[in-house]
């Protein structure tokens, strides 16, 4: 019984199957003629208000487009502004800052490692160059 009472007091919106059930129900037999007339009048009034709101919205959208044109704002400018704003917002996040810091530190370590490898390679080439020069000059000195 308690579950039934709770079901009547639910505040959740109707879902697919519930909407179908309500749509197929015939409540008109439970209404008096006076109530039906009042509901029909309310329905007409709501439809008129919706039409008016659509017209007002359409007029405001046209006005918006005109203002943007006068200000030289176009879709490309708006996209650029949105992108810039989004990029700035992303850069200010903690995750971005931590990632940037980590990658920066890793880049510094990689640069140092490449520098050390470069130095070692240069030294090795220097040693090889000396060795080659020495091995070439030795036979020439023996012939004399």
Automatic annotation (TrEMBL):
<dbReference type="InterPro" id="IPR007327">
    <property type="entry name" value="TPD52"/>
</dbReference>
<dbReference type="GO" id="GO:0005737">
    <property type="term" value="C:cytoplasm"/>
</dbReference>
<comment type="similarity">
    <text>Belongs to the TPD52 family.</text>
</comment>
<dbReference type="GO" id="GO:2001235">
    <property type="term" value="P:positive regulation of apoptotic signaling pathway"/>
</dbReference>
<keyword id="KW-0175">Coiled coil</keyword>
<dbReference type="Pfam" id="PF04201">
    <property type="entry name" value="TPD52"/>
</dbReference>
<feature type="region of interest" description="Disordered">
    <location>
        <begin position="1"/>
        <end position="21"/>
    </location>
</feature>
<feature type="coiled-coil region">
    <location>
        <begin position="29"/>
        <end position="70"/>
    </location>
</feature>
<protein>
    <submittedName>
        <fullName>TPD52 like 1</fullName>
    </submittedName>
</protein>
